[in-house]
Amino acid sequence: MTQTENNSKKIKNFVRTFNGSDHTEFYGTIRTSAIRSMDEVRDAYRTFATAIRETKCVPIFEKNFIPLFKKEELRRVRAQVLTEGGIETPPLVTFIDGAPPGDSLLGGIQWWGIRPHGDASKPERIDAQTMVWSNRHFHMCYIASIHADSGENPTLQTESSFQAARLRLENLGFKFKDVLRTWVYLKDILDWYNDFNIVRNKLYATRDFLASANSIPPASTGIGAQGGKGHIFLDVLAAKPIEGHPACFRLIQKSIGQGPAVEYGSNFSRAASLSFDKRTTLYISGTAAIDGAGKTEMPGKPREQLNRTVAHLEEILKEQGGQLADIASAVLYCRTEEALEAALSEISALGLDHVPMIHVIADVCRPDLEVEIEAIAIFNTPMENNPHTTKKHDASC
Which residues of the chain have pLDDT under 70? Predict the structure, then answer.
C-alpha cells in the first residue's frame, strides 16, 4: 500500500493505492470542513478531478455527503468541474443527506477507482447506476442509488428497492447471493427500522434472494440518511469468482466481541471479504457499540461508544489478519454535533487522526446509539480460515 495526503485548512485529501497482478486500486477520501461557498465546493471537486486524472484510473463509485436541499446545485457544480477536468468516464454517484457538520455545504467525497495493467479489461459503465468490471479472478458489479417509487409507503419502498437491485443483478448475469455488501440509507430510520428489518428478513428467506432463512446475508450499513423523495435508497456490490482462478469470498457473521446481528433481528454480516493475489479487501459493516448479546454498550455516551466501536472494528480486523492501519476508507456517523465533537476527541486520543474518514451527522439505528463507523480495509496478508467466517464461494478458500 502507498498513500498520499494533500491538505489545506478546509480540504483534507487521502488517496490509498494498492497494486495487484493485473490492476491497481485507488481508494480516495476527501474530508471537508466549514465549506461555506460554491467556490470552496468547486475546490473540493477539483481535488477529486485531479486525483482521478493523476492516478489515471477509471472511477467506479463516488459518494457525496451533502445537505439534501443543495443536491441539484451541487450536482451541477460537480458535473461542470469534472468536465473541465477532462474526466471522460465519471463514476457512479450517490448523494447522501448526511447533514455535514457545522452547516457545511459538503461533508466529503469518498471514491474508488481501478487502473488496469496492460490489456486487462477496464471497468464498464452500463448506465447511470451500474458499473461492471472483470479481472482474471472474478466478475464484479456495483449498482448505485437504487430508489423506489416515492409514492409507496416505507415497507413497500423497501421491497421495491431490493427487488429492483435483484433484477438489475440478474440482467447482468449475477444473482443476489453474489452480493458482498449493501449500503442502505433510510429516511427517519428510528421511526421504522424494525419494519425495514421485517421486510428485508422476509425477502432474504426467499429463493430469489438468499434461498432460505438460514442463508448467510451480505455485509451492510443501515443508517439514517436521505437521497431523494423516498424513504429508502441503496448501493449494492456483488462479485462472483471466475472458474479455475483463485479468489476467495467470505462472510463474517460475528467477531470475538459481537455476535450475529441476525440474532437481534437485523439480517447482515459483520463484514465481507474478498481475497486474491495474496491480498484481502475487507468490507466492514456499519459497526456500533453493541455487545455480544446484542445490547447497547454505554448508552448515550458518545466518547465511550466511540471507544467500544473502534475496539469492535479492531477485533474484526485482527481476526481476519489486518489492523486499524489497514483502513483505506471509512465513514463516522454521529447522531448530533455534540456526539461528533466527543467522538473526534476520542479518535485523537486513540491516535487515529490519520485514518481516511469522513464525518457525518446522521441517526444511527437505535436511539441510544450515538456513533457508528463503516470501513473498507485492505491488507497483504493471506486470510486463514476463521471459526467466525462462512465461505460464500468454494473457489480456493
Answer: 1-7, 150, 212-214, 381-397
Burial 232-263 (b: 16+ CB within 10 A, else e): bbbbbbbbbbeeeebbbbbbbbbbebbbbbbe
Give domain status of residue 5, yes or no: no
Rounded CA-CA distance 29/353 in Å is: 13
Sort residue 93 into left (φ over 0), alpha (ψ -120 to 50) or beta: beta
> How many domains does the structure of the chain reveal?
1
Q: Amino acid letter at 243?
A: E
- The CATH number that applies at residue 44 is 3.30.1330.40
Q: How many whole angstroms separate alpha carbon 240 and alpha carbon 274?
A: 10
Helical H segments across 133-291, by residue range: 154-171, 189-204
Cell numbers linked to 194: 424494525
Range of the domain at 78: 10-124
Pair 123, 131: CB distance under 8 Å: yes
Backbone angles phi, psi at 134, to 5 degrees: -130, 140
CB atoms within 10 A of CB 63: 25
Scanning the structure block, which residue is given the C-alpha cell 416505507?
154
Residue 119 within any structural domain of the chain: yes
Residue 376 inside a domain? The answer is no
Q: What is the pLDDT of residues 61-101, one digit of tens each?
A: 999 999 989 999 999 999 999 999 999 888 999 999 877 78
Answer yes or no: is 320 within a domain.
no
Q: What pLDDT sits at residue 100?
A: 77
Tens of pLDDT, residue by residue over 261-319, are 999 999 999 999 999 888 999 999 999 999 999 999 999 999 999 999 999 999 999 99
The 3-state secondary structure of 27-74 reads EEEEEECCCCCHHHHHHHHHHHHHHHHHHCCEEEEEEEEECHHHHHHH
Listing DSSP states for 244-275 in one string gives TS--EEEEE---SS---GGGGT---BSEEEEE
